[in-house]
Design goal:
Shape of chain B: globular
Shape of chain A: globular
Radius of gyration of chain A: 20 Å
Largest sheet of chain B: 4 strands, antiparallel
Strand content of chain B: 5-15%
Oligomer: heterodimer
Strand content of chain A: 15-25%
Low-confidence stretches of chain A: none
Structural class of chain B: alpha+beta
Helix content of chain B: 40-55%
Strand order of the largest sheet of chain B: 4-5-9-8
Distance between the termini of chain A: 29 Å
Radius of gyration of chain B: 23 Å
Order of helices and strands of chain B: HEHHEHHEEEEEEEHHEEHHHH
Order of helices and strands of chain A: HHHHHHEEEEEEEHEEHHHH
Largest sheet of chain A: 7 strands, mixed
Distance between the termini of chain B: 53 Å
Number of strands of chain B: 11
Chain lengths: 363, 413
């Protein structure tokens, strides 16, 4: 029995943490959130030099070829740092889609650029509010030309390549679209978490290359993979939010004692700790299923997703509450976590969507 | 990450399995797992003692105990493997867990060689069953607030008072007992620790009927019960530190035996029951609730896998055991309540012929409040996590530095 990451994987994680602590303190997240830069470009380059974007990309395409467990550890640290880089959509979805379904030519064209960070990928999936999944996709491809509108697209204003969900002859599939090509219009949207930008993409006859094999089952698998990796990002961020909250309640005095000495607060902190640990355990199990391509990935990914969303959101809600008035100010960092929690639980399908999916998979 | 046994674990498992196959019958799918302590008939007790003796003779009793006390010095992980393997066979209910898990290790740690020679071998072989006499009506979570007294009289101590929640007291030969020997000092300093013969004159045992009608534990009354001084396990007044040894062993035995239901049977239940004319599992609200429960239950199961990994690396069980009970008991109680709701008006039936699933959810709903209290209430477990795991300040204590006799108390209950 060894349900734990190896010493080498933990070392990689520590290296990632050290790098992010030095190069991406929360002030970096705030600078992006408050400024005009869409993402932290130096941080993105630094991450690429360390091989993070190419963590699961084979060496022949310029990747570091670490493996999924290693990528999971990196994702955890990206989450802890609230790193303001377009990491998830590019690495967990776009790179993964091309790796999984791309032809040799498609891999050769995109993977080296995605792996070294010179290109940013994204996932253009939903088209309107209330939509979570494949149902209701109207974008369509005919003769290699894509038409339709995608909203919202994470990092859609800065991405170079999108994996677009669209139908062709009634069948749903995924298409690779060069966003710097003709027939693509971008419009930036106000993001709930301004440290991760979003956009509306309109396609009018844009050149679209089909990813063979990315049928509905393939798309479901892709979402499972992305959900597992993102769960690590969420649990990492939840852990950090809980640490910051703990420091605050130990230092804040009321009625002659630290507010952390009140059972009403201690007990809710204990409950949050349980939620984060349960989510961590579920993420671990899903990472194992992902790394071994076990059939249990389908249920494990849904479970990891549901508990990661809950753990992160609940932690940030209480984080603001326990900080009292200052927790509601722009100046304190609570809202950075609060925003990121909601952003990540909205991307890749909401918890409600995944709960129904989990039951589908269990019956 | 690898869920397979290491070569050493696999060898141990094979050895255990070989012995079990030669000495016990495999459990069939319809054979219920034995429940500890709820049916202590003479026949069941004799069967449990015979099985323990058989294991002891072959070196499979108390496997985590050191070899010099008759154990095999097994690791916590080997103990988990043994329990997994034994669970595959039809074996009698376990009436020895308190003796083996808590009493024996305490005697080993604090007893004299004479005391150990007198008690350990018969405890190991199952010949003498042990119980633990700690809790009192006014000393549950605040264990050190206990009021049963012992007064020295020559070479003996005279004990008066009442213990409660004593599992298996009626079948036991021996009990471990914490009492107050000095009420004029602070509460932790005035305690002493004894081993008491449960057949002593002056001991009266009254079974307690639980809300599910089971009788798992007892009240034990002491009226001028005399205990020889050579059955004292601590220096006079140092009983609390001995009790802590017992409690640490309790945590270890709970931690290594942690098991949490999956709740995936709730999915099956909701498939089989109609809610307003269609299978309940097709209702979105039902699906989402069940998904929540299953997600938490899997989280607990996956956390216990992390605990097993720590055990297999030789680390002691951590606070995960507290979390397992805290989250798991509430979760099971809520899920049982939800299943009863799905049954509509029939949810209020306890009739196992008519009620879906043979009233299993109703039985669970009735037994779960007990699980939330036993071994530490939710509130105590949250304090443990908050204070010992997260390092938050401990509660302010009104009894700090106060002589026991001066500590304010409520009216007697």
């Amino acid at each position: 029995m060894n349900f734990d990451f190896s010493d080498e994987q933990k070392l990689l994680q520590q290296t990632a943490r050290d790098y992010l602590e030095a190069n991406s303190p929360l002030t970096t997240c705030r600078e992006i959130l408050e400024g005009d830069q869409p993402y932290a470009t130096d941080l993105w380059k630094g991450a690429a030099e360390m091989g993070w974007q190419g963590a699961v990309v084979p060496e022949q395409y310029g990747g570091a070829e670490f493996g999924y467990l290693e990528l999971a550890m990196i994702a955890f640290e990206v989450g802890r740092a609230l790193a303001p880089i377009p990491f998830g959509p590019s690495v967990y979805v776009a790179t993964e889609a091309i790796l999984r379904f791309g032809s040799d030519a498609q891999k050769g064209a995109w993977l080296p650029k995605l792996a070294d960070g010179s290109a940013i990928g994204t996932f253009a999936f939903t088209e309107k509010p209330g939509q979570n999944a494949v149902a209701g996709i109207e974008a369509s491809v005919s003769g290699g030309a894509l038409s339709g509108t995608k909203l919202p697209v994470a990092d859609g204003d800065v991405a170079n390549v999108a994996i677009v969900a669209a139908t062709e002859g009634g069948a749903l599939g995924l298409y690779v679209v060069d966003l710097d090509g003709a027939g693509v219009t971008r419009e930036g949207l106000d993001s709930f978490d301004m440290s991760r930008t979003q956009a509306k993409l309109a396609f009018d006859g844009a050149a679209a290359e089909k990813l063979a094999g990315a049928d509905e089952a393939g798309i479901a698998k892709l979402l499972d993979v992305a959900a597992v990796l993102q769960a690590f990002e969420q649990v990492g961020a939840a852990e950090r939010a809980l640490e910051i909250t703990r420091e605050f309640i130990l230092g804040r005095y009321a009625f002659g004692k630290p507010i952390a000495a009140n059972q009403a607060i201690k007990h809710r902190m204990a409950d949050l700790w349980c939620k984060v640990e349960l989510a961590r355990s579920n993420a671990y199990y899903a990472a194992w299923a992902l790394s071994t391509d076990d059939p249990e990935l389908a249920t494990a990914a849904a479970i990891a997703r549901i508990s990661a969303c809950e753990a992160f959101e609940d932690t940030t809600v209480e984080m603001i509450e326990f900080h009292g008035g200052v927790g509601y100010t722009w100046e304190y960092d609570c809202h950075l976590f609060y925003r990121r929690a909601k952003l990540l639980s909205s991307q890749l399908g909401t918890p409600k969507y995944w709960k129904n999916l989990l039951i589908d998979r269990l019956v | 990450m690898d869920f397979n046994d290491t070569p050493e674990e696999a060898a141990f498992r094979a050895e255990a399995r070989t012995w079990l196959e030669a000495n016990a019958e495999l459990r069939g799918p319809d054979d219920d797992a034995p429940i500890m302590g709820e049916n202590l008939s003479d026949e069941n007790v004799a069967a449990a003692q015979a099985w323990q003796k058989k294991k002891a003779d072959a070196g499979w009793a108390c496997i985590t105990w050191p070899k010099e006390y008759g154990g095999r010095g097994a690791t916590p992980m080997e103990n988990v493997i043994w329990n997994e393997e034994q669970a595959r066979f039809k074996t009698p209910g376990d009436i020895f867990s308190i003796g083996i898990g808590m009493c024996g290790p305490t005697v080993m740690a604090h007893g004299t060689p004479e005391q150990q020679a007198r008690w350990i071998p018969k405890l190991l072989s199952g010949e003498e069953v042990w119980c633990q006499l700690f809790s009192e009506p006014s000393a549950g979570s605040d264990l050190a607030g206990l009021r049963t007294t012992a007064v020295k009289d020559g070479d003996e101590w005279v004990v008066n008072g009442q213990k409660i929640w004593t599992s298996g007291a009626q079948i036991c030969e021996w009990g471990i007992l914490v009492v107050r020997t000095d009420p004029t000092v602070v509460k932790h300093a005035g305690l002493s620790y004894f081993v008491v013969n449960m057949k002593s004159p002056g001991i009266e045992i009254r079974p307690i009927t639980q809300i599910n009608k089971a009788q798992g534990f007892n009240e034990v009354f002491f009226t001028d019960v005399r205990i020889p001084d050579d059955q004292r396990l601590s220096e006079v007044g140092n009983g609390w530190s001995v009790a802590l040894t017992t409690l640490m062993n309790e945590r270890q035995s709970i931690g290594s035996g942690m098991g949490v239901g999956s709740l995936e049977d709730l999915v099956e239940f909701a498939e089989g029951i109609e809610l307003d004319g269609k299978p309940a599992i097709e209702d979105t609200a039902v699906r989402e609730r069940i998904a929540d429960y299953v997600t938490k239950a899997r989280g607990l199961k996956n956390t216990s896998l992390r605990t097993l990994t720590a055990l297999s690396k030789g680390l002691p069980p951590g606070p995960e055991a507290s979390m397992g009970k805290l989250v798991g008991a509430v979760l099971q109680q809520e899920a049982a309540s939800f299943a009863m709701d799905l049954a509509g008006a029939s949810g209020a039936l306890l009739d196992d012929e008519v009620t879906p699933d043979g009233a299993a959810w109703q039985e669970r709903y009735l037994s779960l409040p007990g699980l939330r209290i036993a071994g530490g209430t939710d509130e105590i477990l949250r304090n443990i996590i908050a204070e010992r795991v997260m390092g938050l300040p401990s509660d302010a204590r009104a009894d700090k530095g106060v002589a026991f006799k001066d500590i304010p108390t409520g009216p007697p209950q």
